[in-house]
Amino acid sequence: MTVDSVPMTASCESEKALAPVWQIRVGTRLSRAAAIAGLAVVVALALLPMIASRNLIQDLIFVFTMLALAQLWNVLAGWGGLVSVGQQAFVGLGAYALFAGVVVVGIDPVVAILLAGAVAAVAAAVLGPLLFRLEGPYFAIGSWVAAEALRLICAQFKSLGGGTGMSISPSELSQMTGLKAVQALFGLRAGAARDILIYWLALLLVVLVTLSIYVFVRSRMGLALAASRDNALAARSVGVRTGRIRYFLWVVVAFATGMVGALVYLQKARISPDAAFSVTDWTAYVIFIVVIGGVRTIEGPMIGVLTLWGLISYLSQFGSLYLVVLGMIAILIMLFMPRGIWGEAARHWNVRLFPTQRVLSRNS
Amino acid sequence: MNGFDTIIEGVLLGGVYALFALGLSLIFGIMRLVNLAHGDLILLAAYLVLSVTTALGVPLVAASLLVVVVMFAAGFALQRLVLERVLGDDILPPLLVTFGLSIVIQNGLLLGYGADSRRLQAGAFESSSVTLVPGLSIGLAPLAALLTAVAAVALLQLIFYRTSLGRAFRATADSPPIAQLMGINERSVYAIAVGLSVAVSVIAAITFGIRANFDPSIGPARLLYAFEAVIIGGLGSLWGTLAGGIVLGLAQTIGARINPEWQILAGHLTFLAVLMVRPRGLFPSRRP
Fold first, then answer.
1. ipTM above 0.85?
2. Residue B18 lies in a domain
3. Cβ contact (<8 Å) for A146 and B276?
4. Does B95 contact chain A (CB < 8 Å)?
5. Domain of B65, in residue numbers
6. CB contact under 8 A, A324 and B99
7. pLDDT digits over B165-212, tens only?
């Protein structure tokens, strides 16, 4: 009789079956319902141009592009701990790459959007190693310096309008892929049809960005990223390549930010260095959106962008006062409600539509 | 002689940048706080001095002293009422609060004073100059700015290494919990540090406001110059910050001499180059 055949094994097995099995879960029943509802909203938004006015379409382009920028900043600063106040660098660079591609080289605007992303990503790949030498808060100002340097460099290109900027002529935009089809479909003039096309591109971009971030922060990589933010030393000691994962995030976020910038300026059709690299427009608003809605949540920026949209409709006529009010709101929220509107609501009612937290649950 | 002119001009400009940078360097050294509203606080100080001199008719020197006291109190209150609540391990909240403050101050100034360029009036002082050698004279105001910067660094060094307040600063910077065990009140040390930082910025505002025009939108650029001076000079050393300011001033004036459009860009590129070659700055402190 060997030791193996002792009935011990059997008892062990039965104990195993009795022992509680713990599982890490992210999704909930509510989150699956929210995913279906989200899909329905996206489909509805895609069909919206059939009935919506041109004004609403233009407003929604603003909402989608700002939401995309806010989600991107949220993953970079909130989850990744790379608090950049220089994201206008990639918006501006993307916009300038689009103008260079369309006006100077003469390529299709839709293709030029991808080119814009690539240019922004290359710039980020080059600047990253330099800026990462600055620790935590100094990285913030360092990224701002980089953005200013890029603004001044873009202002040097006389073929792109120098310091005063330039416009894209409607004839250059008429070659855009799909424009003729949209015109025929809705029976609209080129300008309105272009807005609808850009609306769809913006919707596609914001859905892709949000979805990728959602999948990313729920993945092992997302966990590794959060670990390198909370304690880089401890993360490294369990085998997380903190430097590499942050660099990857920085470059990918720049790629997407560049595409958003290109899309924004494709709609505006007019560019200047001061506007394209504006810290107020492309970083301050974006930070306000994330702070008001809730840092480190997928839902937060959505709430934030709708709040900003509402505030703009009522307050933007007051100019500077509007920004003073917005800044005050952001400070007060940081002081008294640091989780933001959605974060507080989610904690209070324990509702998470797009959960990213890992919950340990017992599987009996 | 022309090149020599440029160098002197750059060194003198560096004095102003060093004054911008001292306040930033001070609070980062003591409490690891990066104040993104630093540049806008400098501008706020400049506008306050402007208001006190023009509206109340007070002479510049008296107005400066008054504003130094007011801004010290404002900095103290800012720390106790606002920043204290968000300081912690997470770097995001203090950055966002100071960024929000920057937007509020900048647009508040725009509301209160409009977008026009202003300048502080210093009477005959602002245009007079001293002749060093025949054919080479330097303006009295820029020279005074540099001398003020040197004096400010010397004074801060004195406070840091020769007074009990300085000992409290250094102890708190090294380890807040142990400093507290030794009977240091961390909260008031931090509040005094922020107050001091803002008070030094008033000096910067005055030396800057006399020699150049200012408007509400240029605050962030002051923050960037201050930051560049700190990093070029090396973290943790006030004399290094002075040297960093001078390097930045030189880079800008030499860039401007080559092409007037390149002045600011030359400064930014020098900063990036230093970051590439010597990431710890040109004159880092010996302590790790």
1. yes
2. yes
3. no
4. yes
5. 3-115+137-277
6. no
7. 999 998 988 888 888 888 888 889 999 999 999 999 999 999 888 888
